[in-house]
Structures are given as structure tokens and as C-alpha cells.
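Action item from last meeting closed. Structure (349 res):
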């Protein structure tokens, strides 16, 4: 394996770490008595604080000042904030399956956009891998189950479905815009991403503060379980910052560090190394981690089709790693690869 293959493999490793850590947010959130977008804010703000402290210790702000600021740096942070906040808001207005499925349309958008505008290669092998993980996701989030196709288009979920779709668009645009400015240092890019993501969510939180509610949960056999009414709908209650208990704050801190600082930092690093299609195939590993945690921590049942979905996601991810590292090992290094990539010169950069 040559250096280019190792570099690709490192990118896949970072993306796998990122998607695995992000898969834990649902489990953490069950122990936090707070609205989803408040949790989303702390995920990005913890990253901003963490990177700021690190930069102060190592003198990293010299690189920040030396880096040419551009619209792509601004928008990648904004889209990161939007995808995080819109998703958790959507879960309050539609089914979890709908929200999960619609946000995961994002990597497909990014792959299409990168193929058209950045001229990134989209080979049959990548199409096969992406198809495998997409089908696997339909199964693991139970949009397709033993009961048939379960995307709920009931008018009562229209608002939530639109918000969830918007979160998917934001996800796709984040992955797409992150492919610009490959010359930018990953740590600097991460600091800017956290800064603008936290700022974006802060604006949304400020507008929604007076109407904040949180899902009421009760402990059943030691497992925090959402309380539902007679119609089976989740029960929510008005939320006050002063009423958050110590356990919620402690879990929020850990969740912010793990699923925010850690996950989003690794995502930023991976976005510099991998093509949009490669990022897409690995991003779906998040659903596997979420399902594993649900099974272990909350005794959630996993059907045969969900196991099949997980297998398809793993197979698609591994095949993409194999295709990409093999291609990197056999492709000759050209003069174009030693110069800045064409999309680094594009107007948005």
C-alpha cells in the first residue's frame, strides 16, 4: 500500500470515527431533559470552546490569521449548524423514521453536486456502494419493514417532513461545500465550522426560546422512555433552563464533547481527504451505531430486515474503502494532483 492509499485509508478512518460518534446522540439525548436544538447548540459550542482552548495553548491562531477567509468556510459552518438543529427540530414534528430517512438523503445530494460542479469521479463501483448503503438505511430505520413502506405522509407530519428534508439538504450542502478549499488547515477549518455552526444555532434558539418544550420521559425498568398520550403521541412539557437537573447537565457535557467536538472535528478532517461520494458511503454507518446503542442500552428490538440493512451498510462501506484505496494505489501521480485542485480556484472558494 503506497502513501496515497494510506492517506485515503486515514480519511475513511476519520469518517468512520465521526459517523460512529454521531450515532450516539440519540442515546445521550434520552438522558437530557432539554429541547433538541438546545442540545444541538452545545454540540457545536463545545467544539468551538475546545478548539479555542487548544489554539490558545499551541498558538494556533497564527494559522487562523494566515488563512484566507472565503465564502466556502462561512457556509460550511452555517450548513453544519442547520443540519444539526433542523434534524432535532424535525423529530418533534414527524416520526423518527421519517426524520432519519430524510436527513440521510443529504449525502446523495452532495455526491450529485460534487459530480456536476467539482467534476469528482462517480464510477460504477461507487454507485454500487452508495446504492447498498442507501437500501440498508431504508431497512435499518424501518422505512421499509415487514409491514411494507412506512414513510408517513400524513398531513399532520407535513411540517416535520419539510424540516427533516431541509436538514437533509443542509447535510448535503455541508459535505459539498466542505470539498472546497482543500488548502485550508483542518484545525482552522474545524474552528471556523464550530464558530459559525454555534452562531447559526444560537440565532435559531433565540427565536424559539419562549416556545421551547421538551419530551417528557419516565423510567421503565431503568430505561428512560418517552411518555405518550392516549393516541400514542409523545407528551411534551414547557421547558425552563433553571429546571434542568444535574444529571441532564452532566450528560449534556459528555454528549457535547463526544457527539459534537469529537464527531464534527473528525468529519471536518475526513472532508478534506475523501471525495463526496466516499464521504457519503461511510456516513451511513451512523445508523448502525444508533441501532446498536438502542439494542444494548434500551432493549430495542432489531428485526431481521434491520440486521440485513446493517449488513448492506457495512458491505457498501467496506467495498468503497477497497475500491478507493486500490484506485489510489494504481493511479499514477500526475502534475494536476501536485497543483491545487481545480475547485480550489472556483469563485466560491
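Sequence:
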Amino acid at each position: 500500500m503506497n502513501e496515497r492509499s494510506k492517506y485515503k485509508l486515514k480519511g475513511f478512518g476519520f469518517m468512520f470515527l465521526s459517523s460512529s460518534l454521531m450515532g450516539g446522540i440519540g442515546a445521550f439525548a434520552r438522558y437530557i431533559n432539554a429541547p433538541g436544538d438546545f442540545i444541538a447548540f452545545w454540540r457545536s459550542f463545545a467544539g468551538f470552546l475546545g478548539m479555542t482552548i487548544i489554539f490558545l495553548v499551541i498558538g494556533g491562531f497564527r494559522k487562523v490569521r494566515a488563512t484566507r477567509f472565503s465564502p466556502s468556510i462561512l457556509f460550511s459552518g452555517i450548513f453544519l449548524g442547520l443540519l444539526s438543529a433542523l434534524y432535532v427540530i424535525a423529530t418533534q414534528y414527524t416520526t423518527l423514521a421519517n426524520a432519519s430517512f430524510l436527513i440521510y438523503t443529504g449525502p446523495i445530494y452532495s455526491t450529485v453536486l460534487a459530480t456536476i460542479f467539482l467534476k469528482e469521479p462517480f464510477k460504477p463501483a461507487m454507485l454500487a456502494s452508495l446504492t447498498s448503503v442507501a437500501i440498508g438505511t431504508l431497512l435499518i430505520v424501518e422505512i421499509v419493514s415487514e409491514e411494507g413502506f412506512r414513510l408517513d405522509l400524513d398531513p399532520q407530519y407535513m411540517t416535520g417532513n419539510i424540516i427533516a428534508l431541509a436538514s437533509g439538504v443542509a447535510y448535503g450542502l455541508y459535505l459539498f461545500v466542505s470539498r472546497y478549499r482543500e488548502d485550508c488547515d483542518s484545525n482552522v477549518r474545524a474552528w471556523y465550522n464550530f464558530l459559525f455552526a454555534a452562531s447559526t444555532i444560537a440565532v435559531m434558539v433565540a427565536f424559539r426560546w419562549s416556545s421551547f418544550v421538551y419530551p417528557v420521559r419516565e423510567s421503565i425498568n431503568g430505561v428512560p422512555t418517552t411518555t405518550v398520550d392516549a393516541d400514542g403521541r409523545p407528551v411534551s412539557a414547557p421547558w425552563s433552563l433553571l429546571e434542568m437537573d444535574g444529571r441532564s447537565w452532566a450528560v449534556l457535557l459528555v454528549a457535547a464533547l463526544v457527539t459534537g467536538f469529537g464527531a464534527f472535528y473528525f468529519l471536518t478532517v475526513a472532508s478534506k481527504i475523501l471525495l463526496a461520494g466516499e464521504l457519503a458511503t461511510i456516513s451511513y454507518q451512523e445508523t448502525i451505531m444508533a441501532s446498536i446503542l438502542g439494542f444494548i442500552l434500551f432493549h430495542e428490538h432489531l428485526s431481521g430486515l434491520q440486521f440485513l440493512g446493517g449488513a448492506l451498510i457495512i458491505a457498501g462501506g467496506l467495498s468503497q474503502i477497497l475500491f478507493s484505496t486500490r484506485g489510489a494505489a494504481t493511479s499514477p501521480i500526475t502534475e494536476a494532483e501536485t497543483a491545487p485542485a481545480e475547485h480550489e480556484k472556483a469563485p466560491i472558494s
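Note appended to the action item: Residues 3-216+248-331 form one domain.
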